[in-house]
Predict the 3D structure of the following.
Amino acid sequence: MKSNAILLTFLVVLFSLTNSSCKKDDKYMSDAIITGYDGRMCMCCGGLMITFNGETEPYKGDFKLIDNSTEIGIRTNETFPVYVKVDWTPISDKCFGNYIKVTRLKRN
């Protein structure tokens, strides 16, 4: 009986130590590239340009504009392109869906 209690205690301690040492890697929704600031002068322009298809040049291919660019920590004097991992949501009611809101960002 005493050996069962010792074995049970050992297993509980072992399980709690191995379980607490595991660290889950936070997964992000998308790998992306911030290619720079949009300098066009139009009604649906401005903000940071971001692409999800590997394009590193501004204004090339399919890109979105980041609506909350001041909140994500990318400054105007950055060296672009900036490779990032992001979570984001589309803003469908602004400029035909060309804008997104970045909810989480991590530089690569």
Summary: Strands lie at 30-37, 48-51, 64-66, 82-91, 99-107. The chain has a mean pLDDT of 85. Residues 30-107 form one domain. The longest helix spans residues 2-20.
